Amino acid sequence: MFELIGIPPQALFGQLLLGLINGAFYALLSLGLALIFGLLNIINFSHGAQYMMGAFVAWLLLRYAELPYWGALILAPLVVGALGVVIERLMLRRLYELDHLYGLLLTFGLALVIEGGFRHIYGISGQPYAIPPSLQGGTNLGFMFLPTYRAWVVVASLALCLGTWAVIEKTRLGAYLRAATENPTLVRAFGINVPVMITLTYGGGVALAGLAGVMAAPIYSVNPVMGSNLIIIVFAVVVIGGMGSILGSVITGYGLGLVEGLTKVFWPEASSTVIFVIMAVVLLIKPAGLFGRA
Amino acid sequence: MTDALLEVRGLEAWYGESHILHGMDFDVRRGEVVTLLGRNGAGKTTTMKSVMGVVRQRRGAIRFNGAETIGLSSNRIARMGIAWCPEERGIFASLNVRENLELPPVVRKGGMTTAQVLDLFPRLAERATSQGTKLSGGEQQMLAIARILRTGAELLLLDEPTEGLAPVIVRQIGAIIRDLQAKGFTILLVEQNFRFAATVATRHYVVEHGRVIDCLAREDLEAGGEKLKSYLGV
Ligand SMILES: Nc1ncnc2c1ncn2[C@@H]1O[C@H](COP(=O)(O)OP(=O)(O)OP(=O)(O)O)[C@@H](O)[C@H]1O
Ligand SMILES: [Mg+2]
User: Fold this and answer.
1) pLDDT at residue number B193
2) Which of A27, A169, A236, B117 has its CA 20 to 30 A from that of B35?
3) Contact B105 A191 (CB under 8 A)
4) Considering Cα of B22, then B208, then B14, then B93, what sign does the dihedral take?
C-alpha cells in the first residue's frame, strides 16, 4: 500500500483511531461540562473524579456482584448520577448566586477528596477490566486492524453525543433547558420547576461522565487518577470549543482527539502539548472559543 | 366575600435591604382590565413580580381565586393560573419563534390553541422559524403576549406592553387587549402611557412610593384626568 512521507499507513491509521477514541472521551466529558455550566453556572471540576467513579463502580459491580459490562453500562452511570444529585442538593445549590470561582473551588475540593479516598482504598496501580466477550476481537480492514471494542466506543460515544444534542435542540425538554440557561427566573414563572431541572441536569451531566468511565474501563486500567489525567485536557477542549456550547464541545472533542493523533504520527514530541498550544492560540484570537457566544 | 379574582392586601416587598413596596392594596375582578399607573420607580413592576412570586422577599396577602399565594414559589403560582409578560419581554435568543410561543406549559384547560393564537398574531406565523430575538421590538412584544395565551391562565399580568413602540403598534396592542377581555381573560396592566390605559381599562390604580394612593374610574380619565396628570407629573 501507499506510504505518506515515510509514514506506514498502519501507523497513521492506528494513531488516527487512537485519536478518535480519545476524542470520543473528550467529547462525552466536555458535553457534560457544557450542559452543567450552561444551566448551573458552575465549572464542574469534579467531572474527572466522577468519570473515574463510573469506571470503579463498573469494576466493583463486576467483582462483587458479578454484574457484567452491559449491566454496569446502565447501573454505574445511575449510581454516579445519583451521587451527583446528592452533591447538587446538599452543596452546589448554595453557590448559584456567587461567583463561578466558588463552584470551581468546591468541585475541585470534592475531586481531591474523592480521588484521595479511592487512592487510599485501592492504591494507584490500577485494576484490569476485561473487554466483554461480545466485543472482543477485531476486523482486519486491509490498511489497519480495527479492534471491535474501540469501534464500539467511537460509535456509542457519537450516538450519545448526537442523541443528547438532538434532545436539547429538538425536543420540548431541550427548549426548557435552553430557555432556563438564558433566564431561569422567567422559565420558573411559567410554571416549570427549575430547581428540580437543575438538579437533574447536574445528575445527567455527571451520569454522562460516569458512563464515559465505564466505557473507558476496558481500554485504560481502572485507577483513581485516570480522571485527573484526562480532565485537564478536557478543560482545554471546553475552552477551545467555547464554554456552554453543546455542539461546539462535541465537535471540538473529536477534532482535537484527531489532531492529537496526527501529531503523534508526525511530531511525537509535541503530541502532549499540541492541545494547549491550540488553546493559547484560540484564546488570543477568539477568547469566547470557536463556538462560543461572546 | 368579594368577587375579586386577585386580592392584594398590605403587600410589602424588598430587594435586599431596600424596602420598595409599603403596603399595596388593590383588587382585580374577574373579567376586568385594571391598570397600575405611576411614575418611574413607583413600584409597579415590583408589584407584578411579587404577585408572580419572582420577588421572594414579600409580606402581606395576595389571594388568587380566594387562595393565599404569598408563601408559594413562582412555579406554583403560575400553575394556579397566573401568567406574566415581563417589562423586558423575555424573548429567548436560543429558541425560535415557534419554540418561544410553545415554551410556557399549559397549566389549566381552556387556554387558546396555538392555531388560535397565530390567528390573533399572523405575523408570528410568518416568522415561526426565526430566532426569537431577531424579531422587531413590536413583534417581540406580540410574541411575549401571545405565548401566555395558550397556558390556560385566567389572569394575565402585562408589564408596559406599549413601552417604546410606534403608535400603530400601540393601537394594535390595544385592540388585542380588548379582544382578550372579550375572550374572558382578566388583565392587570402596568402602564406609563395613561392615554393608552384609558382606552383599554375600566379602573386605574395610581401607585406612588410603593403604595396605592388613588383609584380612578374610566370616567375620571375621560373627564380630562387633571388629577391623574398631577399624580404623574405630566
Ligand atoms: N433588582 C433590584 N434591586 C434593587 N432595587 C431595585 C431592583 N429593581 C427595582 N429596584 C428599585 O425598586 C424601585 C421600584 O422599581 P420598579 O421597577 O418596581 O418601578 P416601576 O414602577 O416598574 O418603574 P418603571 O415605570 O420605570 O418601570 C425603584 O426605586 C428601583 O430602583
Ligand atoms: Mg417597571
Assistant:
1) 85
2) B117
3) yes
4) positive
Cα atoms in the 13 Å half-sphere on the side-chain side of A244: 15
User: Sign of the CA dihedral B135, B141, B142, B146?
Assistant: positive
CATH code for the domain of B168: 3.40.50.300
Alpha-carbon distance of B75 to B197, in angstroms, equals 29
pTM across the whole model: 0.89
Residue (of A181, A177, A229, A165) closest to A28 by Cα position: A165
Mean pLDDT of chain B: 92
What ipTM did this prediction achieve? Answer: 0.94
Q: At what angle do helices A246-266 and A9-40 cross, to 10 degrees?
A: 150
Q: What is the mean pLDDT of residues A117-144?
A: 90
Give me the torsion for CA of B24, B29, B30, B31, rounded to 10°.
Answer: -100
Q: Which residues contact B49 (CB under 8 A, 6 or more apart)?
A: B13, B55
Give the mean pLDDT of chain A: 91
- Per-residue DSSP letter, B157: E
Phi-psi region of B38 (alpha: psi -120 to 50; beta: other; left: phi over 0): left
**Rounded Cα distance, B210 and B215, in Å:** 14
Domain hosting residue B155, numbered range:
4-232
Handedness of CA B152, B157, B159, B163 (dihedral sign): positive
Do B113 and B149 touch, CB atoms closer than 8 A?
no
Q: How far apart are CA A237 and CA A291, in angstroms?
A: 11
- With an 8 Å Cβ cutoff, are B90 and A191 in contact? no
Distance from CA of A175 to the nearest CA of B (A): 7
Domain count for chain B: 1
Structural contact between residues B216 and B203, judged by C-beta atoms closer than 8 angstroms = yes
Yes or no, beta carbons of B104 and A172 under 8 Å apart: no
Contact (CB, 8 A) for A218 and A69 = yes
Query: B44 in ligand 1 pocket by Cβ < 6 Å?
Result: yes
What distance in Å separates the CA atoms of residue A70 and residue B168, rounded to the nearest whole number? 64
* CA–CA gap between residue A45 and residue A31 (Å, rounded): 14
* Residue B141 grid coordinates: 412584544
Mutate: best of A39, A177, A186, A245, partner B, most B CBs <10 A: A186
Structure confidence at residue A276 (pLDDT): 92
Task: Please state the domain extents for chain A.
Answer: 9-95+146-285
* CA–CA distance, A60 with A127 (Å, rounded to integer): 10
Gap between the Cα atoms of A209 and A207, Å rounded: 5
Ligand 1 proximity of B41 Cβ (cutoff 6 Å): yes
